[in-house]
User: Fold this.
Amino acid sequence: MRAWKVDLVHAHDARSHALAMIALLGKNEMPLIVTRRVAFTPRSVKIKYGARVTRFIAISRAVKDAMTSAGIDGSRISIVHSGITPKGSVHPRDWRNELGWPRDSVVCGIVGAMTDEKGIGLLQDIGAAMAPDARQRTRVVLIGGQATGPTELGGVTAYSAGFITEIDAAIAGLDILMHPSRTEGLGTAVIDAMALGIPPVAFAVGGLPEVIENEISGLLVPPGDPEAFARQVARLASDPALRSKLGEQARLKARTFDAARMTKETEAVYHDVLSG
Assistant:
């Protein structure tokens, strides 16, 4: 900071938030901006979320609401939705051919960290709740994590693909995105899938209702209800026209979460802070 003679510091995650506060000890005149990306109530509000932070950036209204519920003044919080770069030409990965699945099967995918927070523990219940015909028709690919190889989820045939570098091609090869996350600041994996025209099914948690318009650009399910989630997946699996309709609207909705717009709105926060 001394070498670069910076005008402000922007911490983009919890770890950099803590490091920045240490680095700024004794430099009370230096503005500190902190981005918060999770939609649960913060801890240590008096210390990490006290007056030393000049401005917070919340990536969704849900994140801001969680912060204000902890007593943080809403006037100190600006909302800047996360953005993605526009998708170019993508050649979809042929999961059916690669894994020897029937050509008439419906390929669903889970994308991201394979953790309980992301709802991985609910997949067995979701699969078991499907009607037998839907369970037989559906195939699931788990994209992310360390595990690889065939598996099953509540009677549904599945495959763990592990970490994948060509993620857009992998997502573009899906028919449906399953996103059973228990909490979500916004959901950039969902935005990525929507940008590729893949309709999502997700629990209505955190910032996801800001991304998915229910029955327009995807399907939202009451939080923690695997039976309802299974019904909506089965509904999409049996209705190609609905998948196509929701997928096209999902593509249009995803365009509003643009990286250039995110950059411009972040810069506006910088200018606002620096202007006093």
Q: What stands out?
A: The first strand starts at residue 9 and ends at 11. DSSP finds twelve helices and ten strands in the chain.
